[in-house]
Design a protein that fits this description.
The complex is a heterodimer of chains A (234) and B (430). Chain A is α/β, with parallel strands linked by helices. Chain A has a domain at 37-46 and 77-226: P-loop containing nucleotide triphosphate hydrolases (Rossmann fold, 3-Layer(aba) Sandwich). Chain A has helices at residues 48-55, 78-88, 104-113, 121-134, 150-162, 180-195, 207-210; strands spanning 4-17, 20-33, 37-41, 63-68, 71-72, 89-92, 168-172, 200-204, 215-220, 223-226. Chain A has a 6-stranded mixed β-sheet with strand order 6-7-8-3-9-10. In chain A, strands 2-1-4-5 form a 4-stranded antiparallel β-sheet, covered by helices on one side. The longest helix of chain A is centred in the C-terminal third of the chain and has 16 residues, at 180-195. With 430 residues, chain B is of the alpha+beta class. Chain B has helices at residues 3-16, 18-55, 83-92, 127-133, 150-153, 162-167, 176-183, 230-237, 256-270, 290-333, 335-343, 348-385, 395-419, 423-428; strands at residues 60-65, 67-70, 73-76, 96-111, 114-123, 137-139, 154-157, 171-174, 192-195, 198-206, 209-211, 226-229, 245-250, 285-288. Classes of the chains: A alpha/beta (234), B alpha+beta (430). The interface between A and B is medium-sized, with 27 and 24 residues.
């Protein structure tokens, strides 16, 4: 078996709401190997986004342990988490989350800009061009997000997630804001990237989207379970 | 993030809200302009005092009749400060080395058919030296600032002597223009003119003069006038004893306060000025030394400077709060952007730098605009203060530094707040 990228052991996330304690995620065990394509399915409020945020180092678990490429993350300080996030995690969001005042290539290069002194301006441009050409958008370098279609925006966001060669790409409902044809295109692109060796974890409530994954997990009321109907191929 | 990236981000963000940024800057603009104007006033007052130093020596005391407002007019008070007061002061007080005295009066002077109405100055012989060293006038075309003697002031003939002053000799020295007006170009030396109903022999003509103060040149012509021994003027041109203007030279500049006290008690005794019920003296004369002038100038400049300082402080604080307010709004508006930046690896210090640089950019731009406005406002400040204002070069870096500091101080809280946002909530923000 290939390298373990992500391993969680009984990670739990609870929120205090006044006197009530709400458990959004309960004792989740998850192991993801390099090159896997995993779908987390569940209704809204099932805890799948909570798990994705924890895996993306945007949030901390209340209990349990999480190893990212063998590193224990629970003891890391906020800036260490940011440091790791910028290098080892790529995010793809439902609403793209591109910065409106930056051009396509600048959006793509943004993770590099936060890596102090590692990449000069020309380096950033070259890398961004490379990443954009991977998503067939190298002719849109200087365009602003507002000048791009929804599918193009999501491809820019995917290029941004690719540019750092992350250990894992986390996609939260990547087709949620797209029409079905464009959604299919985006899923094909993600599938291709997975076939090129990218590890991808996808959150969706749509079985048609989840079908692209090699393993499917179901989330219900904060409990994670590997789906019996796994290994469905399209 | 590299500084160039941060600067580019800050510029874009400010440029995206030009009007908002411009309005936000206003407080800083006014504050910085006030700082420039304030320091220019202080600098101008200092320069004015320096100029005064030239005209009033460190060992000199000006004494004049005190005037008071009465029935809407300035009236002399108490007893007249007389020529005899001056002469006896010289004889009585050892610290007094010399007393220059003068009176002036507008008179009609006539030679043949030519009549002029001019200012006659009656002086002691040494008062001419006072005129020469006053710094108010200089021979026409004289190199500015270069000193000159009484000889340089004389165009033709001679000035009157101390003996002629004691004797009340009927002699006079004409101003350059007055000589031309009366004699139409003929040589006036040795001729006799009529000054009112007194015959007077012309013994000298002053060379052509100009005011050292350019503005003064339009107000009065130093070439029109007549100099006579003070005693002659008092005897022949006045019906009552006139009050004289004195410049007392003290033997030792370090003992000038002592001399001032002695002269005060001497004059109080002569003029029978008694202490009133509250222990005050109602003096009928005024004395002025270089230190007094210094104090007055500084007082005037200080009052106005304080006003400007208050204005500057208020504007800068208000401007700073304005910046803080706008930055807080900006942070809220850009919550999602902050979330994205945090998601792709921005550390807290990256976010702090980004927003701090933005507020510094606003305040520094305001500072630059304020410096320009302040320099333009200097003449206005001078006019309002009825004084002199002179750009103080150090005020430019100082004002700019203050502007940048305002940006830092008032931008820090919004920037820190931005950096502490929770990435998940920031990403979810609509």
């Amino acid at each position: 078996m290939s390298d373990v990228v992500i391993r969680t052991e009984k990670i739990t996330r609870t929120y205090s709401m006044g006197d009530n304690v709400v458990t959004a995620l309960r004792d989740a065990d998850l192991t993801v190997h390099a090159g896997e394509f995993i779908a987390l399915m569940g209704a809204s409020g099932s805890g799948k986004s909570t798990l994705l945020n924890l895996l993306g180092l945007l949030d901390r678990a209340t209990a349990g342990e999480y190893w990212l490429e063998g590193t224990v993350v629970s003891t890391l300080r906020r800036d260490q988490l940011a440091h790791l996030r910028g290098r080892r995690i790529g995010f793809i969001f439902q609403n793209f989350n591109l910065l409106p005042r930056l051009s396509a290539w600048e959006n793509v290069a943004l993770p590099l800009a936060y890596r102090q002194g590692e990449f000069r301006g020309q380096d950033q441009l070259n890398r961004a061009r490379e990443a954009l050409s991977r998503v067939q958008l190298d002719h849109r370098l200087e365009h602003n997000p507002t000048e791009l279609s929804g599918g193009e925006r999501q491809r820019v966001a995917i290029a941004r997630a690719l540019i750092t060669q992350p250990a894992v790409i986390l996609a939260d409902e990547p087709t949620g804001n797209l029409d079905s044809n464009t959604g299919v295109e985006i899923m094909h692109l993600l599938k291709e990237l997975n076939e090129e060796g990218r590890t991808i974890i996808l959150v969706t409530h749509d079985m048609n989207v989840a079908r692209y994954a090699s393993r499917i997990y179901q989330m219900r009321d904060g409990v994670l379970k590997e789906s019996e109907s796994a290994h469905v191929t399209h | 993030m590299s500084l160039t990236d941060l600067l580019r981000t800050a510029f874009r963000s400010v440029a995206a809200n030009k009007l908002r940024a411009a309005l936000t800057m206003l407080g800083v603009v006014i504050g910085v302009a006030s700082v420039i104007a304030m320091l220019a006033l202080g600098n101008g007052a200092r320069a004015a005092v320096d100029a005064t130093f030239q005209s009033l020596g460190a060992n000199q005391i000006q004494i004049g009749q005190r005037f008071a407002m009465e029935d809407g007019e300035f009236q002399t008070t108490g007893k007249t400060l007389t020529f005899a007061d001056g002469l006896d002061m010289l004889a009585t007080i050892p610290l007094v080395e010399r007393v220059e005295m003068s009176v002036s009066k507008t008179v009609k002077a006539r030679f043949g058919k030519n009549t002029v109405e001019i200012n006659t100055i009656g002086t002691t012989a040494d008062a001419i030296e006072g005129i020469a060293s006053s710094g108010d006038i200089q021979p026409l075309g004289w190199k500015s600032g270069a000193s000159f003697s009484t000889e340089d002031l004389l165009g033709d003939g001679r000035f009157f002597s101390a003996d002629e002053v004691y004797a009340g000799a009927p002699v006079c020295v004409l101003g350059y223009q007055t000589a031309l007006d009366l004699f139409s170009g003929d040589n006036p030396i040795g001729e006799t003119i009529w000054v009112e109903r007194t015959r007077c022999t012309v013994i000298g003509v002053v060379t052509e003069l100009e005011s050292t103060d350019v503005q003064q040149r339009y107000r009065s012509d130093p070439n029109e006038g007549l100099l006579m021994p003070i005693s002659t003027v008092i005897q022949t041109l006045y019906e009552e004893e006139p009050s004289v203007y004195m410049v007392v030279h003290v033997t030792d500049a370090n003992r000038i306060s002592e001399a001032k006290e002695q002269i005060t008690s001497y004059l109080r005794e002569r003029h029978q000025i008694e202490q009133d019920a509250e222990g005050n003296y109602q003096d009928d004369f005024d004395m002025l030394t270089r230190n007094d002038i210094l104090g007055q100038q500084q007082e005037a400049a200080r009052t106005f400077s304080l006003l400007l300082a208050a204005m500057a402080t208020v504007s800068l604080v208000v401007g700073g709060i304005g910046i803080m307010n706008v930055m807080l709004v900006s942070v809220t508006e850009r919550t999602r952007e902050i979330g994205v930046r945090l998601a792709v690896g921005a550390e807290q210090r990256d976010i702090v730098s980004q927003f701090l640089l933005e507020s510094i950019l606003i305040s520094a731009s305001g500072g630059l605009a304020g410096i320009v406005l302040g320099i333009l406002a200097i003449p206005l400040a001078a006019a309002l203060n009825q004084g002199v204002a002179l750009l103080y070069p150090g005020s430019i870096p100082l004002a700019f530094g203050v502007a940048v500091l305002i940006g830092i101080v008032f931008g820090l809280y919004p920037a820190i707040r931005a950096s502490r946002l929770d990435p998940i909530e920031a990403l979810r923000y609509e």
